[in-house]
């Protein structure tokens, strides 16, 4: 279950985050720290691996890049310096088109596509907190994968800056990736 740090300090920044042990995985959501343990399930890892492979194969020779967790995505608000950023997430899959957002620490700014694979301990956070966070950050496409149901919900950012109603897919479906109109994913391959 994702746990927050003891209340000795209520809010943290990326500067604090950089001082924490490297063998621990954490996320900061608006300054609140969440421990990313326990380790993902085998099915979670298989789905993540399949999606990463599909994106990676598609993106060969293209300027976009795909990354799998752990990979820090820093989402600054306003004119925060890197050390003052209060939101650092580690989505399961991240697709970034603008290479200028990439550095040795990960991505600073909004990726183009984010995939979160739910688990009982992250379900609520993925559906509520991260949904609102990713929408506010302007991430073009947000996927929420439900491994136990073999389903996928895809949210597209509208011109008004809000996520549309989800497009829901099951393992029998084929889907076109919104940011790549010529990439078709057979979900049977992802969920098998």
Automatic annotation (TrEMBL):
Domain Putative restriction endonuclease: 16-178
Name of a matching Pfam family: Uma2
Record's protein name: Putative restriction endonuclease domain-containing protein
Domain of life of the organism encoding this protein: Bacteria
